[in-house]
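Comment thread on ticket #2218

A.B. wrote:
> Attaching the input chain for the structure job we discussed in standup.
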Amino acid sequence: MTDDDRRERNRTKVQEAHLGFQVPLLAVLGDLEVAGYRPRIQACWRSPADQAAAKASGHSKLAWGYHNATGLDGSPEALAADVLDDDHPLDPSRDFLFALARSARQRGLETGIDWGVPPEIRSALVVFLSGEAPGSAWVNADGTPGKVGWDPNHVQIRGISVAKARAGERPMVTA
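C.D. wrote:
> Ran it. Output below, let me know if you need it in another format.
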């Protein structure tokens, strides 16, 4: 995808998000661009049918999630997005995944980089993410790549449960 097409896609997709998620998500995309990556929002808001398909295929564990949030009028207000490296959408580098996770954390968001990993690995991963080492530095004692969670490209709000989001709670809008 050309840079112009990718950026236009990002502009369009981010409009599907709640403003309180748009602001930090745009900052994450900017951080990644500055770092030399070409981030692309693959998905933001999902219809109920799309969410059911994502759950059926194993890409989500929820029947309703942050991707499905809407306003009172039913307009999309997604609180999550799937952010890919446009240069490697099917096989992102570990450095990209860690840059995404670090930026998201700095911007008050979270990713699925630590979902489904054992608690001791999760703790070590959180410590690793607080440093400046590249993703290639996340290795096991035997030199193999360290484990990451099952949905590392997923970015979402933090501090509001799925149940509260479904009931209409939204993040504050900050500049």
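A.B. wrote:
> Thanks. Noting for the ticket: Residues 61 and 175 are 32 Å apart (CA to CA).
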